[in-house]
Fold this protein.
Amino acid sequence: MILAIDIGNTNIVIGCMEGDKCSFIERLSTVRTKTELEYAIDIKNVLDIYQVDPAALQGGIISSVVPQITKIFQLAAEKILKKEILIVGAGIKTGLNIRMDNPASLGGDLVVNAVAGIKEYEAPMLIFDLGTATTVSVIDKDRRYQGGMIYPGVGVSLDSLTARAAQLSGISLEAPEHLIGKNTIECMKSGVIYSSAAAIDGIIDRMKEELGGKATVIATGGLAKKIVPHCRRDVILDDDLLLKGLSILYYKNKK
């Protein structure tokens, strides 16, 4: 069993993986000012909650889009596990054929999602990751990473909408009872959720046209559960996709 960690702009996802089986997933807030010791305590507390003995873990692997804390978190995890923690980046073997202008610029989380998607699902495929930003990864029929799309995430859209209206702050991302809202809060919830679902549906249609008419569509990320049920296109919800990819890369690269 290994410790798999994804450091995002808003949350840090931590899970224990045994092959492609996930024992648990938890989320911590991404705090750029925390010290190595503070993050080590966070990791230890999560493992204690799930009664996981750090000595029983073979090692760990991290993907990160927050370079300021990547090394700090790696040292924190090594302090608890007493084993090497890999970082997805230069020098890591992925087996991924990236067709972008600058393959090195592709975020570690997108690499990991693509590696897991290619192993688990039929290509061509679209992978939506709904986090701080919503990203779309496009894998062609030959399992090559062709590129994708990035646009503001659901939470960012809601924050932007409420930023200048103090009385509207703190709105949760729960779908209202009716599509047509009956008050301001319901209208805002409906607008954010259903516009996000409609955007996914529209992007799927356009991407499928470019790929030749068909594609497997997978959604993952912290906000996927809020939006995917309201989509009208067929979308596979896979909460564990990123952790599965980290597990694949760990065993591909372990010494």
Observations:
- The chain has two domains: 2-87, 97-244.
